[in-house]
Amino acid sequence: MDIKVKTDGLGIAVENILEMRPEAGRALDRLWSGSEPMTGWVQTPINQNKEELEYILNAADIVKDEAELFVVVGIGGSYLGAKAAIEALPKAERGAQVRFFGTNFCTDYYREVMAEIRDKRTILCVISKSGNTAEVSAAFETLKPLMIEKYGSEEEANKRIIVVTDPARGQLRAEAEEKGYATFDIPPNIGGRYSVLTPVGLLPMAVSGIDIRDVLDGAKAMAMSPVWDEGGTDYAISRHLMQMTGKHIEVIEMCHSRLGYLGEWMKQLYGESEGKNGQGLWPATLTLSTDLHSMGQMIQEGRQNFFETMITVDDPDYTVTVPAGHLAGRTIRELNEAMMDGVIRAHRNAGIPVVEIHMPQLTPHYYGQMLYFLETTCAVTAMLNGVDPFNQPGVEAYKAEMRKILGI
Length: 408
Description:
By secondary structure, the chain is α/β, with parallel strands linked by helices.
């Protein structure tokens, strides 16, 4: 495990963490048993489907050759993981521009994306298990006629549509078979927010130019690391204990500007997995040092119903030296480290618990490790809280009310 976690700044007694390791170990056993529903993601990095991986890579090459723009229609877990990786990671090779759509009902954004499709060679990718989520359905049904208009016929448009969906069921699967769209499967035993290492996340990543083999190898290294037998779940235990001491919010702070959307992915992962039966930490995300100039005062002197999780990259690929002024000779890396250390000292002096998560470098391999680490520790935290990490019954409430309003 190359991802390093420091929980000593949380003020939790070491014996309290050690006391909970057996229970966390039992949660891990449940995840690995294969008997728990929706845990297919746990062994996916180890049992990689080589044929599927080649299919993804070949499809990505075709997209890059034939399109300038790859429009991904999806919401929640169908786009957040891929977008976070594309924002964060260096690209190994030339890629197509990836645009995410169907994430809202904003008319201006519709107009903007539709104009871009008219102007650029486009391939459309729809990601949804069912295809009947309102945002996805509205987006897809709006873009299909546009693609037909652009390419002259439904037959030609259909050649430029890819569907990632349930292998056997649902509206999208039926339509894909009828229309002859290229398809990829979303494994039935993997939920959306845990699907980033399936075609859901890997196809858009590959199209953008990310080396997805390295991402998967990093996740595999994390899955097989012996650290899970020696406290790899201490972050999960610490998060559970923070709740038991009355903390209600986890302020997740990214100390690298390209990790902002990783925080957005974590918000869904944590929120949907843990927010049940009155349980769960509210995940709030900040990017440092930027947000210190907007939220720093609240954190330093506001109501202390939170703790902080600081995520950083230790060794950037290169650095820049300030050439003049009172900071002359200082490197940007040095200033970033001083900022992080200053935040930790100031906040700990104010009695705020801080946990640190360190990624060695921002590479596909270490990013894959981070994804698997966060998925696993999130699931374990939920289990320690006594809730099911893999359902989201509360999400259906607004959808049901929306259907009533629309009469559908």
